Amino acid sequence: MENPLLLFPQLNISASKEKSYYKVMKSAAEEEPHKASKPRVKQKRNRLSLLLQKAEFQEGHQLSKPGSLTKAASVVSPEEAMRWAESFDKLLSEKAGLDAFTRFLKTEFSEENIEFWMACEDYKKSKTARELLPKARSIYETFIQKDAPKEVNLDFQTKEATSQHIEQPIITTFDVAQSTVYRLMEQDSYPRFLRSDPYLNLVKGRNPARPTLRRRSRSFTVNDFQGVRPDFTIW
């Protein structure tokens, strides 16, 4: 008998090994895509989680800023808010009133006026002549010169008179320009502020309701994981 395995097929050990080997290779080939998909699935979920956390943090951060209207309303009494209507000077003399008016001007895209007024107030507090020059140049380049990043609305004569004193500034260099912007805010922006809903709510003691943070739906990610078998080891 040259080849006994041919006479007894049921004892053909080599054939059995080949069949078993084929099954093992087939099983490995079927599982390979699933194994390869695990890192991709995990990466997708990690990226999604980070994006959601970042977005929710930014929402919460915006709502909790010190200058937010919600916080301002919680610390200002109706009596204090009513005093702001006595005069424009009274409004600016109180920090809470100045902050509320500044936020109002931002809604009208004219906050450069109050910023210029505050810069001039700080300029007049300079104690030495050496402090005046850098402050004067900064104010002029920011608010007054042509095409300044926060240029205020001044007439030609006021701009010219102010620019002539920039190289040798004195404590009153910006007085005329500051008075012009002050009157503009007093006659135009201040009356609108007193009629605005945020101010009227403060007078009535109504605190603006804080927006509720909503969880973002994650259902849009289902398509990314279709055909993938659950594997809790990747969480």
From TrEMBL:
It comes from the Eukaryota. Keywords: Signal transduction inhibitor. InterPro entries: RGS (IPR016137), RGS_sf (IPR036305), RGS_subdom1/3 (IPR024066), RGS_subdomain_2 (IPR044926). The keyword Transferase does not apply. One of its GO terms (biological process) is negative regulation of signal transduction. Residues 87-203 form the RGS domain. This is RGS18 protein. The gene is Rgs18.
